[in-house]
Design a protein that fits this description.
Elements lengths: L36 H23 L7 H10 L2 H16 L3 H22 L2 H12 L8 H17 L5 H31 L2 E3 L10 H13 L5 E3 L16 H12 L11 H17 L5 H6 L7 H32 L8 H16 L3 H4 L5 H17 L2 E4 L11 E6 L5 E10 L9 E6 L10 E8 L12 H18 L15 H11 L6 H7 L11 H9 L5 H19 L10 H12 L16 H4 L9 H18 L5 H12 L7 H9 L8
Helix pairs in contact: 1-2, 1-3, 1-4, 1-5, 4-7, 5-6, 7-10, 12-13, 12-20, 15-16, 15-18, 15-24, 16-17, 17-23, 20-21, 24-25
Bound molecules: zinc ion.
């Protein structure tokens, strides 16, 4: 398809462009050493043009629709576009620059239009529909039947049944929404970069470790600032709150983080998010649903907004009971130190950390020397996977990376066969989106003959030159979490690319990741990776025991901040189609007070104006998924505990029945089949 002619109105991609042909590197890994910023836009344009030609050929085929000439052909289409967008998504999210941001802005509405040109193509839909109506007599294997059903549902969900006038309106809404989401992410990133807490008086940073103060000096220097600078985290709560003794400094850092995208300057996202919410409500109405959430949830495990909302309300009582008690304990601690102020959000971590130390004799600074990043990764995260699945990891220095700190590992199966590549990009950079995530550079598919290439990104503070990267317990848990998503991608063994790996419902996708966190503090795993970075000594058993005992400490706070964000997400996405533009503060207050969760000392994990999961990512009306998946996770932990824990047999059953299966079965059924019986021993 590289020889499309201009007469078709399509573009030919210069053969010197690294995206012009599939990568010749192992696993078709992207040739990042040859890819330049200038290669992306022409490749995206040519990729869209190529897929349009392919889709038109399928839609206008004069032969009657068959599974092969329609569905298989669609699965095989768009390979160039896939190649370039996976690489582009990776670098523009994890290592961006103004050129890449401009490309992102330029292509966002065009990609939305491209998707609509496929999803709203009537001739194509008629063929899929014809196949769907004869599905009982097509003799399809279960995975192929699932593919057909997924396509058919996808077409209906995207608006294929609409009349032409409504399709035109829908396309306009989609393009505008896509442009706005991209602009939102650009502003959130810029705001995080610009919101630096700075000081020229080092005593303001009292409480921070020497390494943290050295890193703060380096950050200030890198920005040509005098003194010291602290970066902000993408969440409302900030890592430094647990240690900063100066209450005014904590408050200033909090205000900076809280108002980063809501202070009237060029990075204010208020107008963008209010319009996105309105567009989504209008789109839902066009598609025949009362709200965006109703539209979004129909193919998720929860199915309806009522189910999701009542699930969340069911958690409020539990969260409130816990957090109110925790707040009383912290207030008592404040009083015991002769202070009279009321507990505020910027005080929470500071006093919670003291209480944790007193109650469990556990000090975050005493833990960190045992959590050196490479040890956590290779002797913890990888080790657990080796024990469960019999796989092995080998670092590959010959695979090009997009940033010098990215590491690449090859996974090999128990029988020696090659499985996949895994990229690991650990450090915080101000040209990287906040938080942590997993995605793929090459999707797995037997049809296309591709093995998975998966990456994890996180935002662990980069240590000062020559220092080891020491993780907090939260960082460690996050590494296990993201690797749980990675395993879902790395083990994928399906026929069709669109059903592979993590292409599952949002409220299922967090199950493998949250469950994988379980191994972080599992005794045999913790003992294997928690070694002192300087002395190599194992973490003392008593300290490891304290970590496990303290695991549920502060649980009310964590539950409340996530639950608050979930409720706010649902409030935005259950707006009526004719609702006026909302004021974010009013909407948030309403969502929380309605649920009985408006507490002065606990703010939502994300304020709406920097809530990238829902306004820039795929979690709109889906943030509840984290808590939903917890119920799946709790049962999974109980299953592992009842069946001997970290064993090959248990890992094998989880791998073959869930992690390898992508979206090839009904997910609730897949889960129940897996958990219904113990594992059979692996020979
Ligand atoms: Zn996750």
């Amino acid at each position: 398809m590289a020889t499309l002619t201009a007469s078709l109105g399509t573009l030919v991609l210069d053969s010197s462009n690294p995206f012009a042909a599939p990568s010749a590197l192992p696993y078709q890994a992207p040739p990042f050493d040859r890819i330049e910023d200038a290669h992306y836009l022409p490749a995206i344009e040519a990729g869209m043009a190529e897929q349009r030609v392919e889709i038109d050929a399928i839609a206008n085929n004069s032969a009657p629709a068959t599974f092969e000439n329609t569905l298989i052909a669609m699965e095989e289409s768009g390979r160039l576009l896939h190649r370039v967008l996976t690489a582009f998504g990776c670098v523009s999210g994890a290592n961006t620059n103004p050129t890449l941001q401009d490309i992102k802005t330029e292509v966002a509405p065009r990609l939305a239009a491209h998707s609509d040109a496929i999803n709203l193509n009537d001739a194509l839909f008629q063929r899929v529909s014809a196949l769907y109506n004869q599905r009982a007599s097509l003799n399809l294997d279960p995975e192929s039947l699932r593919l057909l059903e997924t396509y058919y549902d996808g077409f209906i969900h995207a608006g294929s049944n609409l009349n032409e006038a409504d399709k035109t309106s829908l396309k306009q809404l989609n393009e505008e929404a896509s442009t706005l989401s991209t602009a939102f992410l650009t502003k959130v990133l810029a705001a995080a970069k610009e919101s630096l807490f700075t000081t020229t008086d080092v005593s303001t940073l009292a409480g921070l470790s020497e390494a943290q103060i050295a890193a703060a000096a380096e950050l200030a220097k890198s920005r040509n600032l005098e003194g010291w600078a602290l970066p902000i985290q993408n969440t409302t709560q900030q890592d430094f709150f647990d240690a900063l003794t100066n209450r005014d400094a904590r408050k200033a850092l909090f205000d900076l983080a809280w108002s980063r995208t809501q202070n009237g300057n060029e990075n204010d996202t208020t107008a963008i998010i209010t319009r996105i919410a309105q567009l989504r409500a209008e789109r839902a109405k066009l598609l025949g649903f009362p709200t965006y959430a109703a539209w979004k949830l129909h193919d998720q495990m929860a199915k309806t907004q009522e189910t999701a909302l009542s699930f969340l309300s069911g958690l409020v009582t539990k969260a409130t009971a816990l957090i109110v008690q925790e707040a009383e304990d912290l207030q008592a601690l404040i009083a015991s130190q002769g202070e009279t102020f009321e507990l505020q959000p910027w005080d929470w971590s500071f006093y919670a950390e003291q209480l944790r130390r007193a109650r469990y004799d556990l000090d975050e600074e005493a833990i960190k020397p045992y959590f050196e990043l490479n040890s956590v990764l290779e002797k913890g995260v990888f080790y657990a996977a080796e024990q469960l699945f019999g796989i092995s990891f080998t670092e590959r220095h010959d695979i090009p990376v997009y940033h010098p700190t990215v590491r690449v590992f090859e996974l090999t199966d128990a029988d020696g066969s090659p499985l996949s590549l895994f990229y690991f990009d650990p450090f915080k950079r101000d040209n990287k989106n906040g938080g942590a995530w997993m995605s793929s550079l090459v999707g797995q598919s037997k049809l296309l003959g591709t093995l998975p290439v998966i990456y994890n990104v996180s935002n662990i503070p980069q240590p000062a030159e020559g220092q080891p990267a020491l993780c907090t317990l939260d960082h460690v848990i996050t590494l296990f979490h993201e690797f749980g998503h990675a395993l879902h991608g790395l083990f994928s063994t399906v026929q069709y690319p669109s059903l592979a790996g993590t292409a599952v419902a949002r409220d299922f996708v967090e199950f493998p990741s949250q469950f994988n966190e379980y191994w972080a503090t599992y005794p045999a795993v913790l003992a294997h990776y928690a070694k002192h970075h300087a002395t190599g000594e194992s973490m003392p058993a008593a300290l490891a025991e304290k970590i496990r005992k303290a695991k549920d400490f502060n649980r009310g706070y964590h539950l409340t901040e996530v639950l608050s964000s979930s409720l706010i997400d649902m409030q935005w996405h259950t707006l009526a189609p004719d609702a006026p533009l909302q004021d974010p503060d009013t909407l948030e207050a309403e969502a929380l007070s309605k649920a009985g969760l408006k507490l002065p000392y606990a703010r939502p994990r994300y304020r709406s104006t920097y809530f990238a999961h829902i306004f820039g990512g795929g979690y709109a009306a889906g943030y509840y998924a984290y808590q939903w998946a917890e119920t799946l996770e709790d049962r999974a932990i109980a299953w592992f505990e009842a069946n001997g824990g970290l064993t090959r047999a248990n890992g094998e059953r989880l791998r073959t029945m869930v992690l390898a299966r992508g979206n090839t079965e009904d997910l609730a059924q897949m889960y129940e089949n897996w958990i219904s019986e113990p594992a059979t021993p692996v020979s």
